[in-house]
Amino acid sequence: MCTMAINQELNGIELTFEGKPAEEIREAMKAAGFRWHRMKKLWYAKNTADRKALAEKLSGSSATPAQAPVAKKSEPVSKFGIKAGDILTDSWGYEQTNVEFYLVTKIISACKIEIVELGHIETETNSAMSGYVIPDQHNRISDPIQKTVSQDSYEKANGGWHVKISSCISLTPWDGQPCFQSSWY
C-alpha cells in the first residue's frame, strides 16, 4: 500500500509505502526522479505533472492538490537520524563503571547538536557499590553545550555514529535499558 502526500512547503510529492516496494516500482520512481529519504523513510521528488501522475497511479489516488493530504512540517533531524528528545549515553571507567546520560535539546545542523547532561535514577541495587540506572529527564545537571556528531570508518560502514564529550566519554544512542554502574565510595 502506498500513501501520497503533497508537501506544499517544499513543493514536493512524498510517497510512503507499508513495506519495501517491488524492484520495478522502485526503478520507475527513480526514473521519474524520486529519491529515497532514509531518515523519514519515504520517497520524495519535486512536484511535476509527470511525477504526480505516477504518484497517483502508485497510491490509487486521483486527488487534486486541494484534496491531497498536506505533509506536516517535520521536526528537524540530523543527517544521522538524531532528533530533539533523544537520549545519548556512555559508560566508562577503570576501577568503577560510570554512566553518563545526555538529552538532545536541539538540532543545529546536519552534524551539530545541542545537548544537556542528565542526572540518573537508580532502578536496581546489586550491592552498596553497584546497581542499574536510567536517565532522569527532569534533572538537568549542566548547561546546554553544542557538539559535533562524528563517524569513524567502522561506524560509517555499519551506520553508527558518536558524539565525543571528552577523551573518555563518547556518546551513542541509549537503548532504553537500565545501565550497570559501580562505585568504590
Please provide a written account of the structure:
- The chain is mainly beta and 185 residues long.
- It contains three helices and twelve strands, in the order E-E-H-E-E-H-E-E-E-E-E-H-E-E-E.
- The longest helix is centred in the first third of the chain and has 11 residues, at 49-59.
- The termini are far apart.
- Mean pLDDT is 85; it is low at 63-72.
Which structural class do the helices and strands define? Answer: mainly beta
Biggest sheet record: 6 strands, antiparallel, barrel
Order of helices and strands: EEHEEHEEEEEHEEE
> What number of domains?
2
Radius of gyration: 22 Å
Which shape, going by the Cα principal axes? Answer: elongated
Q: Taking all residues together, what is the mean pLDDT?
A: 85
Tell me the helix content: 10-25%
Oligomer designation: single chain
Distance between the termini: 58 Å
**Beta fraction of the residues?**
35-45%
Number of beta-strand segments: 12
The tally of helices reads 3
Q: How are the strands of the biggest sheet laid out side by side? A: 5-6-7-9-10-11
As residue ranges, the low-confidence spans are 63-72
